[in-house]
Write a structure and sequence with these properties.
The chain is of the alpha+beta class and 173 residues long. 29% of the residues lie in helices and 25% in strands. The chain has a single domain, classed as Peptide Deformylase (Alpha-Beta Complex), CATH 3.90.45.10. The strands form two sheets. A five-stranded antiparallel beta sheet has the order 1-2-3-6-7. Strands 4-5 form a two-stranded antiparallel ribbon. Ligand Y12 binds next to strand 4 and helix 2.
């Protein structure tokens, strides 16, 4: 299975993802292929809709303090739900579907999330720091929301102007 990252302004990124009911070989194949393309693309988080599958599936692989992205730090979340949230934090976010753009976004500081693993087992994770921010960013994708949708009116206008300029430049080269 070879996947391609869907990029803004593709309308698929606005789709609401559907709950996963079958924890079968097809799901495992999708998760494995998502991991390959996320690592190939230097990403730390990816939702299934970013590769064209409107399923409540996301993966995360947060680098350790040495900046290494170890395979055993991979987290696969199916049907995630935020059970509790606390505080506020701001982080400069990026997205594989909006390459080259980074924006400060306000999120909950800590969260507790219930989800299922690839075999349908129920899990809970308590997250803070980059992991908390990245889970919230990826969960937004499941509802068709991009980090740029969270910008103020004026910052969004600025983004759209810059985005058009970058697209024009890409076409020229
Ligand atoms: C904060 C909040 C959420 C996340 C997780 C999802 N974002 C990413 O994994 C983004 C990765 C990314 C990688 C890029 O490629 C390189 O840097 C080589 C990239 O491309 C360019 O900027 C040209 C854009 C985004 C992370 C942080
Ligand atoms: Co994203």
């Amino acid at each position: 299975m070879k996947l391609i990252i869907v990029e803004y302004p593709d309308k698929r990124l606005k789709e609401k993802s559907i709950r996963v009911e079958k924890f079968d070989a097809n799901l495992h194949e999708l998760l494995d292929a998502m991991y390959r393309i996320m690592i190939e693309s230097n990403g730390i988080g990816l939702a299934a809709i970013q590769v064209g599958y409107a399923k409540e599936v996301l993966i995360l692989n947060i680098p350790n303090e040495e900046g290494e992205q170890l395979n055993d730090a991979l987290i696969e979340m199916i049907n995630p739900l935020i059970a509790s949230k606390n505080g506020q934090t701001s982080y400069q976010e990026g997205c594989l579907s909006v390459p080259s753009f980074y924006e400060d976004i306000i999120r909950h500081e800590t969260i507790s999330v219930n989800y299922q693993d690839r075999d349908g087992n129920t899990k809970t994770i308590d997250a803070e720091g980059l992991l908390s921010v990245a889970i919230q960013h990826e969960m937004d994708h499941l509802n068709g929301i991009l980090f740029i949708d969270k910008l103020s009116y004026s910052r969004r206008k600025k983004f759209e102007k810059e985005f058009k300029r970058v697209q024009k430049e890409k076409k020229r080269s």
